[in-house]
Amino acid sequence: MNIKIALCSLNPTVGDIEGNSELIIEAYQQAVAEGAEIVLTPEMSLTGYPLEDLTLKPAFITAVMDAKQRLCDRIAALGHKAAIVFGHPSPAPVSERNRDLVYNSATFVDPEAHAVHTIHKHELPNYGVFDEKRNYLEGPLSPVIPWRGIQLGLMICEDGWFPDVAAHLAVQGADILLWINGSPFAMGKNLQRLQHAANRMNDTGL
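Structure (tokenized):
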């Protein structure tokens, strides 16, 4: 089976939920016009990244959830068949020290099947510029996502740097791995990403 996947390298602005929504819609429309069947936008594309202490503000998370629903509705209303992935924070059912915790999440919208699936980042980086263990709760290992008769395994950034998430998705029956990222630029980063992708392919055969 051949699948045409668009990889959209966007530059969202931290905190500009409405502006970032427009970026996502524009990228989706362009990708569909070029024949894409699945459109991938970056980690936290709806909110920008890194969010740092914005994750501590309940009003911001509520605004993100409202914007997520509006974005899903807009994508459905466009009438295209292509699926899309976009990243965002989402509430976790856990509180700690009088604050609600959040996940680093990604949502897969399949307008053809009228389906929406959200998964959460499992591996949280906590080195260099990253402080995700303070800002996010570790997500559970995710189920695969059914799409047109195949199973998709979706990973978020650090999930692809280690073998556990890909191995879990393979056991769940994934046919292909989709991997979105939002890590900052560094010399040689592209080669690192390619090597990790190759490692996950070698680990799983996917």
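The two ends are 13 Å apart (CA to CA). Residues 25 and 75 are 7 Å apart (CA to CA).
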